[in-house]
Structures are given as C-alpha cells and as structure tokens.
Design a protein that fits this description.
429 residues, alpha+beta, 6-stranded mixed beta sheet, 5-stranded mixed beta sheet
Length: 429
C-alpha cells in the first residue's frame, strides 16, 4: 500500500492523520481508505480551505520557504532537538511538516544555475480544466447505487470508490477528487444522519442534487437455490426496504448489516459463500459473477434516494431555473425559536422541502431556567432546512437576514439547481 499525495515538486501536503491510502483491488480498480481515525483535518491558519488559499500558499512556498534539513546529531538539533519542522506560511508559523524538496547547491553543477520554477496550482492536482474528466468520490465499491448516482450527476466521470463517507469528504478537501456524490435521504428509510453530521464538520459546499430510483435484487452464487440461503447481507437501509418481500419469498434467513450493498455482493463472491445472499443492484451481480434469485424485491416501487454533489467551492446562484438552498442553524434558547424561523419563510411564500433536527454535538444537554429549579434537561438541536429559492433572489436574502436575528449560528450549506429530471417508479414492478 502506498500513501496518496499530490505530485512533485511538492512531495506532500497531505497530513499524517487522517491518511488516505489506496488499495489496488484489481487491474483497473482503486479504492480509497481512511486509516488511524476519521476526524477531519484542518490546515493551520486556514491553509487549503479554498482554491485562493492554495494558490497563495504555493507562491510563497516556491519563493520564500526554504526546506530545513533535519539535523543528524543532537549537537546541531537546536533547542527543539529537531523535533519540529517550523515553516512560515502567509506570514504565520505552522508546525505542519511540508516535506519540501530541498534546494540544491548552486555550485554543484552548471544546470543548477537555472532559476527554480515556481509552483503552480497544476502541481497540486487541481480540478480538471473545462471539458476534462471529473474525478468523483463516492462511498462503496463498483456496483453501488452511489456509483450510479455519480454517473447520473456527472456523465463520463472517473468514479473513485471510498470505504467510508468521511473519506469521500476528505478526498475532495485534499484535491484527490473534484466532487463527491453522497446520499442524504431515502423515500423509505429516511435521512442518512451520518452525512448530515459530516456536512457540518467539513467545509464543502453543496453544488447540486440528483435523485436515483433504487431497484434491489437478491443475489447469490451461481447454482445456489433460495431454500439453501441461511443469511442475507446488505446495507441496513436496503435490508429494511426489502423486509416484507423477503418474508413473502419464504426467506427466514438471518439478516446481517454490512457497509454497502455492492460490498455485500463482492464479499460473497470473494469468499465463495453458498449459504449467503446479498441485496444489491443488477450491475453488482454482473460485476461479481452472481446470479439474480429475485428481481425488484423492494417493498415499495416508489423507492428513490436523494444524493447531493459536494465541491470545494460554491457555485454562483442564478434565477433562470429552479434552485434549492440548504442551511443549518441553532439557537441558545432551544427549540422555541423554530416557529419564528419558519415564519420568516412563510411570510415570503418560500416553500420548505425538508426540516431535519440533529442533537448539538458540542452542547447536547440544556438545563431549564432557575424558575423551574433546573432539574429537567433538554436536548439542544441543530436544524437543517432545505427551501425552494435561490440565494440570488431578494426574498431568500431577506429571509436569511431575518433568520440570523433569531439564531446564534447560521450557515448556508449550498444554493444549487434542483433535480428536475422526470421520475418514474423502479422497473420490474
């Protein structure tokens, strides 16, 4: 295994932890993995938070920052004993080891007298230029519904599989991918809470959405019959979406949750499990050499998953087509402010498409006031709201200005075009 890092001449701007590593699964497959821990990494002093920061940092690194060789003996290590490599970036000291390429001695050869070429944004593996192939990260393995959503959102893209949602976020932040396509809700299973939490922890922007009809199949190794199945594995939401149909099929097998649907199919094929079936897509069956025991086994044909597209930079909102805006807010006084916030949208005839509450991670419990002796406790919440309006519209700007008066925290996650493609129930029903 080899650590993924931006290409030379800057050897590595990828932090030590968390680290994305690549696993070669086949002759043409690459899977990104997160090791050690899944906490998001923030560059000191905000370096790397946007394209402008990267460009500014590169120019300074090329002209003003000189690599410091680590001393080989304690006598030359200095006061710190060589423990830390401190460099100045944008006028501020940082303890991040930039691992720069050391400058050669100008007297070593005639060729070394040539001026050093400044680093450009191309050296940091940026998003491709217009017309080039986009690299899109998704959670799962080839054959997952997220891969299909990435292909629908960005046709002809280079889909990059990641083993965790967190890794997909980091792949975009670290310039390994240009976009990420991740699920946020399903019409049967509800919200994917993990991704809502990650939207708040990371600084990526929602730049679009795509809705994908989900068509589940029951897969097993060739020659295996349904009556021999003692276990069914899949993603927890896929298992819940097919529970009634599995019972009607007479499958009283144990249900076991795994990370993703296509991963369940891959696991059966890799381990030659003849007593286990997977719930996954027809494409997964084709990729991993499985047979389809039952087609269209979702309990409801109107089974659709909504995905959002994430990027490092927001898009410019417009008014020439339907737009949707996603925000998250909180207030110190609990849920009493929610009615006022909703009134700000209702007064301006702005339709809300979703309201999601999540416990406040940093302050989960709130005591009641002194008048009630302070014995009762309540959860503090963050509220996620989607509404049908573009941030380019004056009514949306005024609504958020009013919301800001009632809240202690307000963040716009993105203002993006709505998915207006015609929807039809999943095939096979």
């Amino acid at each position: 295994m080899q650590a993924i890092s931006p290409p030379h001449p800057l050897k590595s701007l990828v932090p030590t932890r968390p680290r994305l590593i690549q696993r070669v699964v086949g002759p043409s497959r690459l899977v990104l993995h997160c090791i050690y821990r899944s906490d998001s990494f923030n560059f000191p002093n905000g370096v790397g938070s946007s394209r402008a920061d990267w460009q500014s940092s590169c120019a300074i690194l090329a002209s003003k920052v000189v690599s410091q060789e680590q001393p080989t003996d304690k006598s030359s290590a200095g006061d710190n004993g060589g423990a830390d490599h401190v460099a100045a970036v944008n006028g501020h000291k940082t303890s991040l080891d930039l691992n720069l390429v050391p400058l050669k001695d100008s007297s070593s050869s005639a060729n070394d007298n040539k001026p050093v070429k400044p680093l450009t944004i191309t050296d940091l593996s940026p998003a491709p230029m217009h017309g080039s192939q986009l690299r899109v990260a998704y959670q799962g393995v080839p054959g997952a519904y997220s891969e299909a959503a990435a292909g629908k959102a960005y046709p002809n893209c280079e889909a990059i599989p990641c083993d965790q949602f967190e890794v997909a976020f980091q792949a975009v932040e670290l310039w390994i991918a240009d976009r990420a396509v991740l699920p946020v809700e399903n019409s049967l299973g509800g919200s994917i809470h993990r991704n809502y939490d990650l939207l708040l922890r990371h600084r990526l922007h929602i730049v679009g959405e795509v809705q994908l009809p989900v068509h589940h199949c029951l897969l097993a190794l060739p020659g295996v019959r349904k009556e021999y199945i003692t276990r069914v594995i899949s993603h927890p939401q896929a298992l819940a979406q097919c529970e009634l149909t599995l019972t009607k099929l007479g499958l009283h097998a144990a249900r076991e949750a795994v990370d993703d649907t296509a991963g369940a199919a891959e696991y059966i094929a890799a381990n030659n499990l003849r007593d286990t079936a997977a719930i996954a897509s027809a494409r997964a069956a084709e990729l991993y050499g499985l047979q389809i025991l039952a087609d269209g086994i979702q309990d409801d044909s109107s089974n659709v998953t909504r995905f959002v597209m994430l990027a490092r930079e927001p898009i410019i909102p417009r008014t020439d087509r339907p737009f949707k805006t996603s925000i998250v807010f909180a207030h110190d006084k609990g849920t009493s402010v929610l009615f006022k916030v909703l009134s700000a949208f209702a007064f301006r005839n702005i339709s809300l498409t979703k309201i999601e509450s999540r416990p406040h991670r940093n302050r989960p419990i709130r005591l009641v006031d002194d008048a009630n002796v302070g014995t009762a406790k309540h959860f503090e919440y963050m509220f996620y709201v989607d509404f049908e309006a573009s941030m380019a519209e004056v009514r949306a700007q005024n609504a958020l200005a009013e919301v800001q008066e009632f809240t202690s925290f307000l963040r716009v996650l993105g203002s993006y075009p709505m998915d207006m493609t015609p929807w039809c129930p999943s095939r096979g029903d």
